[in-house]
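Supplementary Methods, section 5.1.

A reviewer requested that the exact input to the structure prediction be made available. We therefore reproduce it here, unchanged from the version used in the analyses.
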Amino acid sequence: MTESVPADVQPIDPTGWLTLPDVAERFEVSISKVHQMIRDRELLAVRRDGVRLVPAELVANQTVRKHLPGILTLLHDAGYDDDAVLRWLYLPDDTLPGTPAEALGGDRAREVKRRAQATGF
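The structure derived from this sequence is encoded token-by-token as follows.
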């Protein structure tokens, strides 16, 4: 997927990562349920050094951020793979402010969803 972001704009790193067993423990579900959530695009996991990890900002207490599953579906439908979705979520955006991933935890979550929807057009 080619993104319409200037090449000199670099995504920032998530503030932390959770392993899949960590997510299962936090959600109080089995590891197989976490794998199912990833397959169903309810949760994003990427490989780092051979280990699947979830950005900590995408997890809220015992569930995923409210609008995350919809955003993941919209971006995947627009042709983004998991790494491109991660990049999109962590590109700095002064109009939010911060990154889309950070905005998911606040009152700008619907704006992030609207922007994800616009990527398909």
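The helical segments are 20-27, 31-39, 68-77, 82-89, 100-103, 109-118. These observations are discussed further in the main text.
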